[in-house]
């Protein structure tokens, strides 16, 4: 398909969309009120009985003195698995309000720990938490609480939103968890470093969502190095580690033989993925519209950020795009590894004001993953691809060139600097 045919996209009817964060926040308050009612029906004395936990959460504030918790979908025990962040949320077409509703239904029963070293912690609260994390399905738990929940929610640019919290006195399993054999293998090998264990699980068809939960619980790595990892950190660590493994699989692969343009839009985030012949390079450029969640000041115009790596990869953490970079890179590398090719990869992310509430980098990962599963356009040159895509973006090619390492190499024309932001 020719590029000009491929990028003939209908204009969004933004004026007809309900996108004001203030309006949406009232819906979140309704979700919290609904949670309070369901909680009162499930609590017995000071214990949450009949609960089922699909996942865990480890905070990062005051590390290593962190808050660590067990997540329970109060009142939705029969459907607990659907409350765990996964690629299935994309497949189900969850809207932003759906994500917030699910996350505000999850009670985080937590307690503070003064030591993140947990290599032999299989008893008590931490032991129960680790059992939940390594299981391949939700596990029945009974949780003793200190008081009533704090009805609040929090948002983050990497992890999914968090809901109500309660101080946990104790936690115990009410059933034996089912632990997959590959996970048992990583637990039994005390000399296996965390990176090797992550790669092993990924090669055995564990998705990064499952792996980052196991890592967060301190259940991967050499025995004396096993420690709790804050959820936000574990998400990026797994994306980065698996990405480095995948980069190794294409290091000597032949290049793609044409310039390809892929596109996908979900949750107010539009992604353009451009693959060009050559050795591996990767860049993520983010364009955040005025009024979007990460660029709330309309007078400042479109905010542009970027990070880049060459053939040898990066030696340090990215400076501007945080976990989004590693999620997008992972998805691009999965595609290249699957087709047995390498390429120069430019990912352009346009965050519109329809993205009124941050849901986490899972939507970035799934946006790029699914971009490369449909039709794509082809261009004669990398310049033609970038020029064509820029016509769909709120910035000029000139501004994009000033911010992008890969676009900077294109020969400039005067018209590149005219129009746009």
Automatic annotation (TrEMBL):
Domain Archaeal Nre N-terminal: residue ranges: 20-295
GO BP, sorted A to Z: DNA repair
Domain Archaeal Nre C-terminal residue range list: 309-417
Record's protein name: DNA repair protein
Gene: nreA
Function of the molecule: Involved in DNA damage repair.
Database matches in InterPro entries: Nre, Nre_C, Nre_DNA_repair, Nre_N
Keywords noted in UniProt: DNA damage, DNA repair
Stated family: Belongs to the Nre family.
């Amino acid at each position: 398909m020719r590029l000009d045919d491929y990028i003939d996209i209908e204009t969004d009817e933004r004026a007809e969309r309900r996108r004001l964060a203030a309006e949406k926040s009232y819906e979140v308050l309704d979700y919290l009120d609904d949670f309070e009612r369901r909680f009162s029906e499930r609590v017995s004395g000071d214990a949450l009985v009949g609960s089922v936990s699909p996942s865990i959460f480890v905070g990062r504030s005051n590390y290593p003195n962190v808050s660590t918790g067990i997540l329970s979908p109060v009142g939705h025990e029969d459907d607990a698995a659907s409350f765990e962040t996964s690629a299935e949320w994309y497949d189900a077409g969850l809207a932003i309000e759906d994500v917030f509703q699910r996350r505000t239904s999850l009670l985080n029963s937590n307690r503070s720990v003064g030591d993140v070293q947990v290599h032999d912690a299989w008893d008590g609260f931490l032991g129960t938490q680790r059992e939940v994390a390594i299981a391949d399905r939700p596990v029945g738990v009974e949780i003793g609480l200190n008081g009533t929940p704090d009805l609040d929610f929090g948002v983050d640019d990497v992890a999914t939103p968090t809901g109500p919290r309660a101080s946990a006195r104790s936690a115990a399993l009410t059933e034996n968890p089912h632990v997959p054999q590959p996970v048992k293998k990583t637990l039994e090998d005390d000399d296996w470093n965390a990176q090797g264990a992550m790669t092993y699980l990924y090669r055995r068809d564990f998705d990064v969502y499952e792996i980052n939960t196991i890592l967060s619980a301190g259940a991967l790595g050499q025995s004396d190095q096993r420690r709790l990892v804050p959820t936000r950190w574990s998400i990026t660590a797994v994306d980065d580690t698996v990405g480095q493994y995948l980069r190794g699989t294409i290091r000597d692969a032949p290049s793609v033989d044409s310039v390809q343009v892929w596109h996908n839009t979900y949750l107010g985030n539009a992604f353009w993925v451009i693959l060009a012949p050559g050795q591996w390079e990767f860049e993520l450029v983010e364009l955040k519209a005025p009024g979007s969640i990460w660029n709330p000041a309309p007078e400042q115009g479109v905010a542009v950020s970027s990070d880049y790596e060459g053939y040898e990869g990066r030696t340090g953490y990215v400076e501007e795009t945080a976990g989004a970079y590693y999620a997008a890179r992972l998805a691009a590398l999965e595609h290249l590894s699957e087709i047995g090719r390498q390429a120069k990869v430019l990912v352009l992310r346009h965050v519109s004001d329809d993205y009124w509430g941050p849901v986490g980098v899972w939507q970035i990962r799934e946006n790029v993953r699914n971009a490369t599963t449909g039709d794509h356009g082809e261009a004669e040159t990398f310049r033609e691809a970038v020029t064509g895509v820029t016509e769909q973006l709120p910035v000029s090619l000139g501004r994009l060139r000033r911010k992008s390492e890969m676009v900077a190499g294109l020969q400039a024309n005067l018209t590149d600097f005219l129009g746009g932001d």
